Amino acid sequence: MPPADHATALTRAARLRAEQARARAEKALAAAGRTGRPATVAGLAHAAGVSRSWLYTQPDLIDAIRQLQQRHPAPERTGPQPASTTSLRHRLDTALARIKQLRADNADLTRQLETAHGEIRRLRHTPAPAREP
Predict the structure, then answer these.
(1) Which of 55, 84, 106, 116 has the highest CB neighbour count under 10 A?
(2) How far is CA 122 from CA 4, 113, 114, 117, in A?
(3) How far apart (Å, rounded) are the C-alpha atoms in residues 57 and 39?
(4) How would you label 83-106 residue by residue, b for 16+ Cβ within 10 Å and e otherwise?
């Protein structure tokens, strides 16, 4: 029995996958054009279920994205946005927990230092045992 030739089937499957990816990308691009929202390569890739690197191999799709970006530019940023109350509260809670832990560590180290100083004092004031000649 001769070996099976899978090359034709693999080529056909790869061509079908490429055609489906292209169709999804074109559909996502058309949807982006209708919404009027800023288009990005990453956004289109996500919407189409394709990789950004694949999109970059499609010059006509990249050109279409660039044209959409010119028609619907991203809004200007107004500067840094203030932190939300929830974010600030979380940062405060984290800082308070850290302070509490550091205070406990400090108290423990103080007790250890006091014990060590006491031991040093005891050893300094304890007469040395007599040596036998």
Answers:
(1) 55
(2) 91, 14, 12, 9
(3) 18
(4) eeeeeeeeeeeeeeeeeeeeeeee
- Please answer whether residues 27 and 48 qualify as being in contact, where contact means their C-beta atoms are separated by less than 8 angstroms: yes
Burial class (CB in 10 A: 0-12, 13-18, 19+), 127: exposed
Question: How many Cα neighbours within 13 Å face the side chain of 8?
Answer: 2
**Separation between Cα atoms, residue 55 and residue 47, nearest integer Å:** 12
User: For 41-91, what is each residue's pLDDT tens digit?
Assistant: 999 999 999 999 999 999 999 999 999 888 877 667 667 888 889 999 999
| Calpha distance 73→66 (Å, rounded) | 10
pTM of this prediction exceeds 0.70: no
Phi and psi at 78, nearest 5°, equal: -95, 10
